[in-house]
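User: Predict the full complex structure for these chains.
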Amino acid sequence: MTKTISARQLSLIAFISVFSLKLTVLPSLFYSKVGIDAIFSLFIIMAFDFLELLLIFHVLKKNQDISFYQFLSNKVGKYFAKLILLLIFIYYFFKMLLLCSGGYNYASLAIFKEAPRHLFLFILLVSSCSLYLFKSRSYARTIEFFYPIVATMFVLFVGIALFTAPLQDIRPLLTTPAQNIFESSFMFSVLGGNYLFMLLFMGKIKFGKNPNRSVFGHVVFAWALLMVFYIIDYSIFKYTAVAHPHAISEIIQYLPLPSILGNFDWIAVSFMLVLFVLQGGLFIYCMCYSLNKVFEVKEVEKMGAVSKVVLVFVNLLLLLFIYVVFPTFSDLRTFAFNGLFVPILSSVVMLVPIICFFFELFNSKKRTKVAPSLKSTEEFVEAENQKILSLKVRKDEETI
Amino acid sequence: MVFSEVEKLKKQLNCSMDVVVREVSCGGREINLIFIKSMIDENFFISGILSPIMDFGSRQSKISSGRPFTIDNLLDEVLKTMEVKKISKEEAENELASNKVLLFLEGEDDVLSIDIVKFPVRLPAEPPTSAVLKGPREGFVEDIKTNISLLRRRFSSDKLAIKELKIGRASQTKVAIAYISNIADKKLVRQVQKRLEKIDIDGIIDSYYLVSFLQNNKSSMFKQVGSSEKPDIVASKLLEGRVAILVDNTPIVLTVPFIYVEDLQNSNDYYSLSNYASYVRVIRILGLIFAVLVPGTYISLRLYHYSIVPINFLITISNATVAIPLTPFLEIVFILVLFEILYEVSLRLPSYLGLATSVVGALILGDTGVKAGLISPPGVMIIAISIIAVYTIPDQVDQINLLRAAFIILGGALGIFGVIAGVIFVIAYLNSIDNFGAAYLAPYSPRISQDLKDGVVKSNITKMKLRPKSIHTKNKVRLKNDEDN
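Assistant: Here is the predicted structure of the two-chain assembly.
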């Protein structure tokens, strides 16, 4: 049986992928660049993400039987396909680095007051890797299981904050030049690109009835919650938002709640930790998928071994970067959000869906032209053989 | 005179003391009857077999037509009303081992195998683990024939199919596969039959022996095969498209495929208001969460994250634990181990000593431990809640106990993040289980809207028009013409 995931599960992964660091460190970072207009920077990231989602979804629906690597190989050849996947690997590598460091930064303040960093990393990496090892279908189902819990908790949090927080007027808006707003969106682009992962699930998705409604519905819901969260954050802290790097936990401490509920921090803590692990699993999947394809082996027996070696390598590389290259979160933050390497890399990677879309568009035009000539039996048999071959390769990939 | 083949048979059965040979002279011909005394109805043997044969013998002597009677005469005239079959001498050993009475007639090549098996059988009574307030009170027993009849009573149509197998080289245990022919997926039935036929073991003592052979992941701590002692539950599972496996000598009937939500359901739910059933199911879920997560979370909060605890609770807990010499982790482990010891002891002690155990356990160990300042009241309460909550889902006791221990270690070593990561790991693992094509955590992951009607929230039976989608079935429609009802 082919292990596929449903469109609903895909949309829930998309929902989960929107959050985590955007709820902790990003509000204050954005504010430090463009003040209250950070909302517009976020809006730009969101708009770009939506555009990408539209393009990615179109490509996915048109290529339901082949993997992303096969798709790229068919369009640009093997070597370019590997190069693109390598770029995607580096992009997700930085995302994972930010998750590890930023996550620990949040956890150390919110919950792990005395716990060392290796403890946090151990839990995050082991659980993320196990999610990857349980394969994509199990991962998707796990997201499906936790979605109602995470969504309810976040809605509860937003609801409580909206009705109890001492909100202030955040106007005047648009006081920063438009160039700065765009620039800040570019600098934080590594925190965008939330739906790029969908490409890596290409060929494993079973589109049922009305997949668009499910995917776009959940994505709109996620961004709406995020936008409300940012507005709440800025309207509570206003000019001091820059000094609150753990927005979600710090908002709660400002809420006048009955003492029986304590500081209600456990809501934020619980769903943030769930989000860290689930996103970690996604990033590990994306990294390993990309690297597996870069070092692709043809022998089916060796695929499993290569996959495990890649997983170990990815983890060692992450640890090396966390402990040696960027020993503190501020080091990584400076490199990722103030330097140019990560934003440029992110921008390049975000072009991939656009390129894929144009390939697909070009190809579909070509297909409509070619189709009538596919009349001879030989051509038909050839096309069918190609189809069977692609299905076989896909099945082999499933065994990884 | 004992025939040589009868002598040989007795030897083949190790000349066991309960293998008896009766020699009868009948109408001038010698008859040998061989049987296992402990496994037949002795009264019936005398009145139903021996007496008629002797009567037949005396009649034959009076007629004295000169033509000797044959084994077919015995079959047609004497043992006509009984369960008898003619077998060859080669088959005799197996038949004797199956507790049949064998009749050898001098000079005949064939043998008569007469079935008058009788052994101690318990009457169908309410199983202690599945007591109900309303609904049928009968339970399966150790005899497979009785169990099949209990199932048959619930299906008076021709749709109930039962296939019989014999498993175990030495035990030759009877195993029956039951399913509803127009509902169960043929592929599933074939798969189950194939797996059972492949088993080459010396003996099957209980149905639990088959569980490992039926599940994909042999070393998994999570059960992948359903079990029940109640015919009404098994019948309802058959109607959902499952396959039941009945094993002789055990009252536990297995069902496949198994999904986790089955253990949250109870037969009481189907014999009471659906709203009440939903309420009770929510309580069971809470019970499961309390049983598995409360001790681990308590330890992690006390060790690492006391700031999350609301101040009122924190003050109470701090006051109660301030003088305890053990760390929170050791304290909880100590209380848990103490309880597990008491539990093991109480299971094996005679019932008249049970009271003494509870007095020693609850009063002396618990109360004195708290008064002596070795253990704290919150610690005792946490473990007590956890232990009691386990029994909201009695079919999951083993798994919950193991998970609780794992989460205590995770909470103690890694804090709340360890507990949360552990929960995610367990859920991901359960999602990876492929159980005869059914998703283990269905209908929640993957979400199957139709099956949610019998999930944590139970709908009215009139709303459940279709069979569960999580199990492949031939025929999806359960309720027709709802408008008429």
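Chain B is about 45% helix and 15% strand.
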